[in-house]
Amino acid sequence: MRLKSRYPEHLQYTAETEWDGKTGATARTGEGHTLILDTPKTYGGRGEGLCPDELFVSSVLGCLNNTFLDFQRRFEMELLSFKLRGTADVHFDGQGYKIVGIKIEGEVVVGEDELDVGRRCVELMREYCHVVRTISNCIPFEFDVSVREEPSHDRD
Predict the structure, then answer these.
(1) What is d(CA 118, CA 75) in angstroms, rounded to the nearest whole number?
(2) Residue 31: Cβ within 10 Å count
(3) Is residue 72's pLDDT more than 90?
(4) Cα–Cα distances in Å, from 107 out to 15, 45, 61, 80, 149?
């Protein structure tokens, strides 16, 4: 069954990079955001900016985060905290490096009587994050995201 989206059917994102004259680059997005990229010290760089691998993992986490929050808003779920951590395993195979797996860990804390909705939001996050959907046939994913509820009045 084809789902009807409340968002545009087609989007396009752009970015450009310009070498910094040393071991990195400045990236600019089509929306005007700027990132500093650099080669890690391990590979002879200065390590003064984001490594593309860090940016890649951050992109996966960002998409998961935004997807989760979209469903959280739709369900009007009381969200007390939400944290994700991502790890990409990179291996040298004799010819070059390759990301061979990504592990996503995290914790969701929801308000009282919201546990089932919180778990559903995590399921939907995994299912609908478009970055994960795009690359999961190429890179294995492992998810370990827990959900627990906590009375709102117990929070400082």
Answers:
(1) 9
(2) 8
(3) yes
(4) 31, 34, 13, 11, 11
pLDDT in tens, 114-144: 999 999 999 999 999 999 999 999 999 999 9
Segment 114-123 long-range contacts (CB within 8 Å, at least 24 positions apart): 114/77, 114/78, 114/149, 115/147, 115/148, 115/149, 117/75, 117/77, 118/77, 118/79, 118/147, 118/149, 119/147, 120/71, 120/75, 121/68, 121/71, 121/72, 121/75, 121/77, 122/68, 122/147
pLDDT at 5 over 80: no
pTM: 0.91
Task: Please name the fold of domain 51-150.
Answer: GMP Synthetase; Chain A, domain 3 (3.30.300)
Please state the domain extents for the chain. 13-50, 51-150
